[in-house]
Amino acid sequence: MKIIFTLNGKKVEAETTAQMTLLELLRQNFKLTAAKEGCGKGECGACTVFLNGSPINSCLKLAATLNENDSITTVEGLEEDKLMQRIRQSFTDEGAVQCGFCIPGMTLATHHLLSKNPKPSLTDIKTALAGNICRCTGYRKIEAAVKNAADKGE
Amino acid sequence: MSNYEFFKPQTVKEASDLLKNDGYLALSGGTDMLVKIKNGFFKNLKAVVYIGGLPFKEIKKENDKVIIGSGCTMEEVATNPIIKENYPTLVEAANTVGATQIRHMATIGGNVGNSSPAGDSIPALYSLDAQVVITNGTSQRTVEIKDFFTGPGRNVLQAGELIEAFVLPFRKTTGRFMKLGERSALAISKINLAVSAWEDNKKHYRVALGSVAPTVLRSKKAEEILENAAHPLTEEAIQKASEAARETADPITDIRSTKAYRKQMAGVLLRKALEK
Ligand SMILES: Cc1cc2nc3c(=O)[nH]c(=O)nc-3n(C[C@H](O)[C@H](O)[C@H](O)COP(=O)(O)OP(=O)(O)OC[C@H]3O[C@@H](n4cnc5c(N)ncnc54)[C@H](O)[C@@H]3O)c2cc1C
Ligand code: FES
Ligand code: FES
């Protein structure tokens, strides 16, 4: 079936099946591979994208549920975004990236946090990233990167 | 994955007619449904009926009632000004469902529709005397939340029926929601507890426990002790109420926890909720 929605600021049309998830649609039909499948069950956050500006697990959303007025944003759509650029720089500066698999989801969760709460406490940071699993870093450096991005926002 | 069909009805009547078919299931936020579909839980899934297009998304105050549309997400519930002002227990409960990403998808109607005894919004709804408005597209019926569930994963909905909304008596309550799981985010509750209180001529308490029995339970004994106690609550009253909560609990032993532990924790959580 045909669906129409906005993807990274552009109206797009796609052919989907009843069973296809938004994550599969993004990766297979649009070749947007920043969002990744870790668990496929809503637990790891690697598939995080924004739906109408809010983070969701794209592995749990059927593509067919998208409406014409829905807007999806992936990391690829935030190349020019000032906040995202700052977050990316902080993740690099703090050495918060190892294999990188979790990073698109981590940086989107961070973007959502900082756009709502520019001066988060450590607890705010931990809560905001609770849905994102990283098997490499042990989280300390990720938390430091978020803090760093917040501090640079002044 | 099976080869189910997909429907996106625009009216409640249309949705209801579709859902009368064998093997047709309602899909709202999808956070329970997609996991179950991927796990092969449904042996006879013929179609998914997406109800996100239905007008179930509003939270409003009407006379002496507050109406919460079943399609509101946990995030929408937790950040709504009317809910924040009057029902802190529900705010806390909604805020503990999964992590941010899940809370932006998971709906309160889906949490109740899924009817897990561990569903976190359920004890909160019990503690607020919620009623469930059920529709089939042509007529409505209303049941008390305690009469909605018939067992783990089971409820009174007939084929073609949907939860339209939850209705709470409008009153300013205080309260807490407490939950014990393996880790704070994404944990299925081993046990959860909601306490709500309000005052008119006298003090009223509601104590509801989840994951301690096939459905959520109220501890009327604990409520009575609290309602008749002097305020501020004494250590003795808290002790007695906690013991009553422990006695109410009738849990099972499963992969998440043992029976003795759950009973013990029912008392501990109530104590914590009352002390805060
Ligand atoms: C990683 C993860 C973490 C989770 N953590 C928690 C948690 O901490 N606490 C918790 O309580 N839950 C948790 N859940 C479970 C789930 O997110 C909630 O139960 C959620 O509220 C379900 O809502 P939904 O809109 O996604 O429902 P769906 O998956 O769309 O539907 C769930 C069920 O309800 C039915 N349904 C949906 N809407 C209606 C309606 N309006 N009328 C009648 N039936 C309806 C569906 O047919 C289905 O049977 C978690 C899930 C995941 C994947
Ligand atoms: S892939 Fe979606 S949460 Fe893990
Ligand atoms: S950097 Fe490897 S999973 Fe996070």
Give an overview of the whole structure.
The complex is a heterodimer of chains A (154) and B (276). Chain A has five helices and five strands; from the N terminus they run ββαβββαααα. Chain A is 34% helix and 15% strand. In chain A, a hairpin with a 2-residue loop joins β1 and β2. Chain A has two domains: 2-76, Ubiquitin-like (UB roll), CATH 3.10.20.30; 80-151, DNA polymerase, domain 1 (Orthogonal Bundle), CATH 1.10.150. Chain A has a five-stranded mixed sheet with strand order 2-1-5-3-4, sandwiched between helices. The mean pLDDT of chain A is 97. Chain A is an alpha+beta fold. With 276 residues, chain B is of the alpha+beta class. Chain B has three domains: 5-50; 59-169, Uridine Diphospho-n-acetylenolpyruvylglucosamine Reductase, domain 3; 180-275, Enolase-like, domain 1, CATH 3.30.390. Chain B has a five-stranded antiparallel sheet. Chain B has a four-stranded antiparallel sheet with strand order 11-12-13-14, with helices on both faces. A three-stranded parallel sheet of chain B has the order 1-3-2, with helices on one face. At the A-B interface, β4 of A face α2, β3 and α6 of B. The complex binds flavin-adenine dinucleotide and FE2/S2 (inorganic) cluster (2 copies). Flavin-adenine dinucleotide sits between chains B (25-33, 35, 51, 70, 96-98, 102, 105-107, 109-111, 113-114, 119-120, 157, 162-163, 186) and A (41-43).
CATH architecture of the largest domain in chain B: 2-Layer Sandwich
Low-confidence stretches of chain A: none
Number of helices of chain A: 5
Structural class of chain B: alpha+beta
CA distance, first residue to last residue of chain A: 47 Å
CATH superfamily of the largest domain in chain A: Beta-grasp domain
* Residues in helix, % of chain B: 25-40%
Structurally, how many domains make up the residues of chain B?
3
Total helical segments of chain B: 12
- Level-2 CATH architecture of the largest domain in chain A: Roll
Report the count of strand segments of chain A: 5
Total DSSP E strands of chain B: 14
Q: What letter string, H or E per element, gives the SSE order of chain A?
A: EEHEEEHHHH
**Domain unit count of chain A:** 2
Instruction: Report the uncertain regions of chain B.
Output: none
CATH class (first level) name of the largest domain in chain A: Alpha Beta
Radius of gyration of chain B: 19 Å
Neighbour order of strands in the largest sheet of chain A: 2-1-5-3-4
Give the overall shape of chain B.
globular
